[in-house]
From TrEMBL:
Keywords: Hydrolase, Protease. Residues 1-121 form the PPPDE domain. Belongs to the DeSI family. One of its GO terms (biological process) is proteolysis. InterPro entries: PPPDE_dom, PPPDE_sf. Coiled coil: none annotated. GO terms for molecular function: deubiquitinase activity. Pfam families: Peptidase_C97. This is Putative pppde peptidase family.
Length: 121
């Protein structure tokens, strides 16, 4: 099963005190490993691995959502993850156009052919 972890973002510079505005961070869970994406000055990958459900700084775990089953082989899954790590570079992170949710959506599409919920910004 391909799943995503959803985290509420809060903290310095994130909290807008607007009750209708939810900002989420997501990571993709594949075979017991969660893959997340974030930015930085490095020209290396912005993709990291972690235990599922462990919130990044300034985040609170909200929920796990099952996206779909992958029909890919172990080798194909490994290659997809490797390719995503190459494509999602830390210095290419953009809050509006290339963020963790874009990464999660692309990973889910490649792994099981289904997008993340449209309610995830």
């Amino acid at each position: 099963m391909i799943s995503i972890s959803v985290y509420d973002m809060h903290g310095d510079g994130i909290q807008f005190n607007l009750p209708f505005l939810n900002i989420y961070h997501t990571g993709v869970i594949v075979k017991g490993i969660e893959y997340g994406f974030g930015g930085g000055a490095s020209s290396g990958t912005g993709v990291w691995e972690q235990f599922p459900g462990r919130p990044p700084p300034n985040c609170t775990f909200k929920e796990k959502i099952d996206i779909g089953e992958s029909k890919k082989s172990e080798k194909e899954i490994s290659q997809i993850i490797k390719t995503l790590k190459e494509e999602y570079q830390a210095n290419k992170y953009d809050l509006a156009g290339n963020n963790c949710n874009h990464f999660s959506n692309e990973a889910c599409m490649r792994l099981c052919g289904k997008p993340i919920p449209s309610s995830i910004n």
